[in-house]
């Protein structure tokens, strides 16, 4: 069947799932690696098991093409359960037709529905240096970064048609002296950051060994030949387009490689590069961590939209990039560089913006003009792209977080220790059962976007200490996940932790120091709450499903609204110590007025009382009124 991509010799998959091609078996030169042997039978390494990826990542070179010899090929081993590598690029065999047929159909569907704007975007990010393309995720800091790093590109748009020849990124002739492609120049104000990005994308981070090992063709080389229908459309070269065909963007027709045996699809090299650069930037600029992760997924999706890669290719690229970034950051040889890059970025951006480590985050999230301002929209964009066409099979197995993976959160959650960051990764990970994600060490199950929002579950008691004096995330952070589990939370330190989720953890909540903010009605889970020091602040009405105890020199801060129910509802008893304080804030939109009695605390039983009641008003004061339902306040003029 003719291909819509312009190359008329194509590989196809028949109804039995076998790859066919008109080029013949002599077209390829590489022998198949022994995937089946490694995955299904004991080998010489069975007694001790293969080395952890972070200890063996430098084995990712083109002389090593088997899972026994190459750590990247090993962690991508899930692919060998859906695709049997042949002796040449065109003799492989489909093992899981459900996955690979869905893969091809997905690619055909979105490339045939692609708009011209999407085609041009795909060209832009195909040709532009991937490290440069990732800079836009820095939002309001992006232009400052480009200036400080002297980062430039010559690819700023896309042609209307098919260029006559290859187009590659280069330093523009009119660029300032010392400018550099990608992440920028080492001889710049952000030289350490640029060097960190390039180090993460170093000599052991190539996707080529994986491509040679798996020999899974690009989607435009492998169009399905069963039950095809002529759509009546023509491609850019005048050939008919069929309903099951992947259509390469017109602008990229001459940007493709000529030799199939040297141009495998799995894993996607561009996807690998986007995520490598994105996670390196995220280490240096964790204030934009989730936005960088989001953009890496977004740019990777353009590889499918362009017709140059398939969903499985993109998933493979993300998996290897996640592991390679962790390995590079965890390598002791890079300890000084990564610390210097983070310090340099923080110093540069605070100086350029007139902020402090405590206020830089707010400056970096202005909402207006930020393409990634909507956190919920970012989460919705990422969720389906974590698995694409994969369907889940099998039981739910717990994840053992890969060795060294916790380094990926080192600057985003700096107040947690390594073991706690591993728990965050484990409790926010994807479930088992997705074939490509369940390879060796299961790096593909990590969900870094979710992990940046803290724990997904308290499976045991968690104690977190934030230090206001240390600044940045040490001083204040928000956990946005819906937290479950049998464990509880103890908040220590002078900093502020905010919980925003609909939480269901059962182990209770203790505030010992600093501030714990309940930013949703169910932020404190389903257990008892004890405030032994510091402040518990509710940004909305709050529900405690167990008992509430407040003792020592501590403060409960609640919000009062006009014509509203109690600010705090407790399901069981309330016990108040003699030094406890109640601090009340008037809602700015619907404040209660003088002369009204406002319910504050509702509970079946209340013992003790607050030492004093404070109100943030210059004209009103709050007089406590004890009732059979708990506590109200009468607002009177001063």
Provide an overview of this structure.
This protein has 638 residues and is α/β, with parallel strands linked by helices. The chain folds into two domains: 11-379, no CATH class; 454-637, no CATH class. The chain contains 17 helices and 25 strands. Strands 7-9-11-13-16-19-22 form a seven-stranded parallel β-sheet, with no helix packed on it. It has a seven-stranded parallel β-sheet with strand order 8-10-12-14-17-20-23, with no helix packed on it. Helix 8 (191-200) runs antiparallel to helix 10, helix 8 (191-200) crosses helix 13 (335-353) and helix 10 runs parallel beside helix 12 (311-330). It is elongated and about 85 Å long. The chain starts with 10 loop residues before the first strand and ends with a strand. The model is unreliable at 1-47 and 224-228 (pLDDT under 50).
What amount of the residues lies in strands? Answer: 15-25%
What is the end-to-end distance?
87 Å
Helix-strand category: alpha/beta
Query: What percent of the residues sit in helical stretches (DSSP H or I)?
Result: 25-40%
Assign an overall shape: elongated
Order of the strands making up the biggest sheet: 7-9-11-13-16-19-22
Number of helices: 17
Rg (CA only): 28 Å
What is the count of distinct domains? Answer: 2
- Tally of DSSP β-strands: 25
* Average residue pLDDT: 90
């Amino acid at each position: 069947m003719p291909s819509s991509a312009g190359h008329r010799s194509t590989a196809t998959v028949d109804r039995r799932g076998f790859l066919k091609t008109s080029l013949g078996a002599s077209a390829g030169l590489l022998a198949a690696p022994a995937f089946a042997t490694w995955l299904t039978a004991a080998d010489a390494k069975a007694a001790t098991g293969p080395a952890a990826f972070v200890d063996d990542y430098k084995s990712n070179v083109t002389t090593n093409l088997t899972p026994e010899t190459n750590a990247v090929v090993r962690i991508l081993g899930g692919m060998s359960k859906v695709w049997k590598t042949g002796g040449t690029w065109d003799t492989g065999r489909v093992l899981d037709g459900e996955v690979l047929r869905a893969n091809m159909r997905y690619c055909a569907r979105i490339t045939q529905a692609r708009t011209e704007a999407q085609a041009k975007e795909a060209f832009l990010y195909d040709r532009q240096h991937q490290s440069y393309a990732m800079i836009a995720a820095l939002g309001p800091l992006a232009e400052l970064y480009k200036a400080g790093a002297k980062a430039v590109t010559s690819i700023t748009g896309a042609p209307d048609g098919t260029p006559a020849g290859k187009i590659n990124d280069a330093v523009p002739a009119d660029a300032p002296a010392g400018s550099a492609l990608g992440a920028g120049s080492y001889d710049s104000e952000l030289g350490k950051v640029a060097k960190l990005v390039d180090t993460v994308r170093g000599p052991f981070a190539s996707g080529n060994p994986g491509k040679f090992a798996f020999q899974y063709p690009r989607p435009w080389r492998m169009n399905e030949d069963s039950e095809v229908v002529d759509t009546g459309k023509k491609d850019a070269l005048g050939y008919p387009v069929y309903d099951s065909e992947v259509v390469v963007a017109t602008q990229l027709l001459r940007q493709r490689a000529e030799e199939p045996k040297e141009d495998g699809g799995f894993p996607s090299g561009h996807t690998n590069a986007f995520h490598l650069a994105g996670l390196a930037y995220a280490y240096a600029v964790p204030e934009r961590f989730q936005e960088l992760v989001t953009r890496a997924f977004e740019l990777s999706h353009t590889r499918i939209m362009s017709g140059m890669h398939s969903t499985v290719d993109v998933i493979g690229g993300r998996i290897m990039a996640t592991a390679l970034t962790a390995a590079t950051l965890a390598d002791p040889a890079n300890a000084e560089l990564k610390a210097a890059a983070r310090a340099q970025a923080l110093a540069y951006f605070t100086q350029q913006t007139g902020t402090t480590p405590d206020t830089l985050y707010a400056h970096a999230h202005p909402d207006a003009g930020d393409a990634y301002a909507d956190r919920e929209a970012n989460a919705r964009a990422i969720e389906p792209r974590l698995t694409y066409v994969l369907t889940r099979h099998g039981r739910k197995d717990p994840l053992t977080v890969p060795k060294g993976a916790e380094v990926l959160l080192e600057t985003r959650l700096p107040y947690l220790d390594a073991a706690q960051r591993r728990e965050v990764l484990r409790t926010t990970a994807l479930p088992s059962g997705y074939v490509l994600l369940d390879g060796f060490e299961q790096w593909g199950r990590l969900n870094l976007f979710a992990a940046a929002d803290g724990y997904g579950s308290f499976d045991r008691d968690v104690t977190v200490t934030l230090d206001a004096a240390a600044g940045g995330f040490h001083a204040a952070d928000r956990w946005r996940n819906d937290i479950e589990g049998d464990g509880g939370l103890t908040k220590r330190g002078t900093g502020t932790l905010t919980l925003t989720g609909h939480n269901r953890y059962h182990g209770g909540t203790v505030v010992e120091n600093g501030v714990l903010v309940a930013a949703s009605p169910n932020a404190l889970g389903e257990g008892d709450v004890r405030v032994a020091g510091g402040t518990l602040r509710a940004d909305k009405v709050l529900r405690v499903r167990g008992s509430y105890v407040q003792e020592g020199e501590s403060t409960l801060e609640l919000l009062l609204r006009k014509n509203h129910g109690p600010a705090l509802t407790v399901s069981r008893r309330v016990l108040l110590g003699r030094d406890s304080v109640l601090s009340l804030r008037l809602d700015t939109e619907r404040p209660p007025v003088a002369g009204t009695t406002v319910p504050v605390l509702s509970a079946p039983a209340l013992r003790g009382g607050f030492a004093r009641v404070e109100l943030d008003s210059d004209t009103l004061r709050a007089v406590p009124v004890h009732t059979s339902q708990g506590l109200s306040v009468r607002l009177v003029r001063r």
